[in-house]
Design goal:
alpha/beta, 2 domains, Dihydrodipicolinate Reductase, domain 2, homotetramer, Rossmann fold, about 325 residues
Chain lengths: ~325, ~325, ~325, ~325
């Protein structure tokens, strides 16, 4: 098994995090190139990696002979074109979610990939590698709660990013649940509805929190709370209620403090401490598959298309007063 | 302050529990009479109370000169008539919920009470006296989570009683939430919708679990899961999500066990261990008010009417495919 | 069963708490008299109880014909004499711990009680009625952790009372553990040793925290941490490690808060919220036994003597550099 | 930074785990050689690593030009000699604890290392890299509990290995605490005492559980419970009690189950799931230091000598009826 040479496109928070993880914590990988439209930003990120080159041109990176595999962590709107380019170059690509902002654009990418005859695209639904979620999924599969009937998902953050909107709350945050729920209980989402009450006074430009109901093909119902401006911390919860019991994620804190009148467990301020292991294990699994020639165990472009179709249905419900909307995954 | 002489109508589980609590744990009360259509059952219950008499005729109990105050714990369908009789006799009455099976019947009782010019009826929404719920309510009022935006209520039991139906799941179980939510956040329920997915295979005669959405006047949304056949235990949860944080009930177990590969906390098998304190404190507060001539701090007949109107709206949604239904509280 | 007329001696925090609990929460009891050397203080406490009289003379209370039973909650140094007086008057007496400051004085009280031929004295080791401790004890007895091998007891408070000393930390606080441990595992304490390291800078006049090792007749070891100036809250813990697992008390908080970067459970500031149920149930059990003529289920004068003997042994160890000291219970 | 070529001596559980971790999860390392007296066992372990060679001769591995650095995971009695050989070969070596079974032998190794003028030996006290322990240590250093006064350490396993003895319980298990406590609170252990009560009926050949008291130079006291046959699971606990509060490790479970009358969190059956991250991060830190020429951040040979001296003092106490014994670290 030889070392996989990786090029990373995008040197923002996500890209920088991937470069650091690949370089410092993943076995069998070496980052050889970093691309960013802001070449200086690319250089800052690449600086920590001996021998890594930088470019402002993502396509140059994709085509570079010293790049065996590509990570796409640039702006959402660039994902589709870059993924297609990587596929055309015959290189494995790990694309951050979303694959594309709309189902129609996702279809184009999936078609391009099928055209090549292989599965070159992996999608960064990293929760599939989070140790807590994988243990939860294994427990469901082992029948620990019996057949699933209800799921309660909660996704809270400290504050929304500038420019947040109702739609971005769905396509950027809730979309993780749209991939996670079917993956956990092995049943696709067929019907959705969107709800909101009074918004927190700290939210600007969006209704927050939002409440989404999902109905999967097996008949299970899911409630999804997405609350970007929850204020108190980054807090991801999931409970699966089955015929014999329930399974849920625990609070991930490692240290408990008794002080000043209270026993307390800290909440992380953002996703990084919560999902550092998930990203590391996802990248390791991706590299291992490339090195050994095995199929990627990550989410696929098709998974990205499906999640995007669910998001579209939710936004349709949002625009129609919370009515139930059937999910329609476009034919490819 | 003299001792309050109480007559208890109904010697089933609930009535027997009240007799026992009044006799053994409430200060200032004495049970002088127990009524049940099955007089033998009444005798069994009264047996533990020195001097308590029995009767098969509830109206005889209400009119008995040795009865200062009446507890109604007989069949739901008898509540309204007996409450009216107690009111007409001028005696304080603690009526187990529901006040009556329909809002229309509740209206009749409330009218009768108003006619007397006083507040003689208290309604047994005992959660208002549960130490966990009262602490939760006080914390909300103190601003510990900021202004409430979302509530998540869960009400699970081991198995449904014989004869359970979709409607009884609402009027008998979810109705507790219909009283609790407005009491917690001080805002009335204005709109509801009812949802169900696949039912557990252990449920017969009803759809179970059910999921109910409530919208209160302040704009907050509430999700209510009612799952009568959850199997694993009796488990009541409530989380209030506000602008600055969340508040939730903890698991009530007092002992934690490490054994056989797991750390575990027991679940009670039914409501009795969970709400024993709530019933005791409710009865004590009722007796104290009677003895001192103060107004009853318990839920009122009006509260019972309002909860019944919410239940009716939920059942309407149930019969109309889960559509949103406005709550209409009848004029009295 | 007729009402038990109770006289309470001592109108400090503890006595006031007992008067309030007897009056408001205990069935079958009426407080008829309150005694305190500060008669005004007695009057303030008695004020809430219609018909209760006051006196500055505890012996007058003991001998009053309207007093069926006596609670002693006056200064520790008065307990022995007053208990003896109550016994001589032939009245049941609930004496707050300690029975007396020294084993020798305890012996005198026990002798006097035996002389009367009955068991008139109950001792206020209220943990025996705390729902968490009684559940823990029942679980041990049911074999839930197997045969006990080790116990870890922790007793922490916010700050020590003025005048606290090394010895008072043992006789006033640790003494609860000296009664609790044998009661939990049904084995008497035979050997002890006392240890202390660096004291907290907030302690004045005593070494704090202290660490005490106990060895019971069954061979089990117990560690007791007593930390009066723990600062953060009132926190009582107990874990029993057995051959098949462990059993421990849980944190008693009823509400969990997510706010300001942390999930937290409150600690009480003192013993009152923590042991309110224990005191109530202890008083109820005492009154029930008196009313029915059954033997008192509370701790006995002998239990007080034994706990006092353990405390004496611990103080001997304290004065001898932490050496092991055998517990010697004086013959009565 | 070039790839570090590692040779691993010992292909038992520990060695196999290290080979797997280095190969699959550590960036910048390649396992080039595996040694075991049972060459077949070495081959089985090496099989998963393309290109790795095997030998029955550990000294051949140490001297091999394709080995840049050595991991020693063979039998405890071989550690000292092999560490010395690696030092003499001028190669960085990660030696599993203990450095040697006695302080005297540790002294020999430390002398040899000093003789070379460098710090080539790292010692496998992996808890120093466990995310929970490092977070605990950082919180102490940040003053989250104030100045430490007491520590309570618990180390429980399912069942002891064949051949376990009282002494091995100290040198093999408790020794982790002897390194952890001074590392956590930055104060050396000066005095110890050993205690045991009745042993569990499932223990053969040793007294189990054991209780050890430690006194550190700062005056803090530590209680250490070591219970190899606790039966219920592998459970490591640590609480630090300081002047302003306490800090403790949480239960590490990621999923909570509600089923069959209980809420439960699983316990691992052994150390592997509990400390997998610690071993991975320890190996990564070791490799990073070697690759960059930085000093190893792992525990040193001196740390191993100190822990061994503490263990010796504990065993002296064990043989002297639990008396207090001063720790004497031999001069090097």
């Amino acid at each position: 098994m030889s070392t996989v040479r990786v090029g990373v496109i995008g040197a923002g928070n996500m890209g920088a995090d991937h470069v650091n993880t690949l370089h410092r914590h993943v076995s069998g990988a070496v980052v050889t190139m970093v691309a960013d439209i802001d070449e200086e930003r690319a250089a800052t990120v690449a600086d920590a990696v001996p021998g890594a080159r930088v470019t402002a041109a993502p396509h140059a990176l994709i085509d570079d002979p010293a790049v065996d595999a590509v990570v796409i962590a640039s702006h959402d709107t660039t994902h589709a074109d870059l993924a297609v380019a990587a596929v055309q170059a015959g290189k494995p690509v790990l694309c951050e979610k979303p694959l594309a902002p709309t189902p129609a654009e996702c279809v184009r990418v999936v078609r391009e990939e099928r055209h090549t005859g292989g599965r070159l695209i992996s999608l960064g639904f990293m929760r599939r590698f989070d140790p807590a979620y994988t243990e939860l999924r294994a427990a469901i599969a082992a029948g620990a709660c019996g057949s699933p009937l209800l799921l309660h998902c909660v996704s809270r953050g400290v504050s929304s990013a500038p420019g947040a909107t109702d739609e971005l709350s769905v396509t950027g945050s809730a979309v993780h649940e749209f991939d996670t729920v079917p993956w956990l209980i092995d049943s696709r989402i067929e019907e959705v509805s969107w709800h909101a009450g009074r918004s927190t006074s700290t939210a600007t430009g969006l209704r927050d929190p939002q409440l989404i109901l999902l109905r999967t093909a097996d008949g299970a119902l899911t409630t999804v709370e997405v609350f970007l401006n929850a204020g108190y911390g980054y807090d991801i919860r999931c409970e699966v209620v089955g015929e014999r019991g329930t399974l849920a994620l625990t609070h991930p804190a490692r240290v408990v403090t008794d002080a000043a009148g209270a026993r307390s467990l800290g909440h992380p301020a953002d996703w990084r401490p919560r999902f550092a292991d998930a990203y590391r294990l996802e990248l390791q699994a991706w590299i291992d598959a490339i090195a050994s020639g095995a199929p990627s165990p990550l989410a696929t472009a098709d998974d990205g298309l499906v999640a995007s179709a669910v998001a579209e249905a939710v936004i349709t419900s949002m625009k129609n007063g919370g009515s139930s909307v059937a999910v329609r995954v476009p034919e490819v």
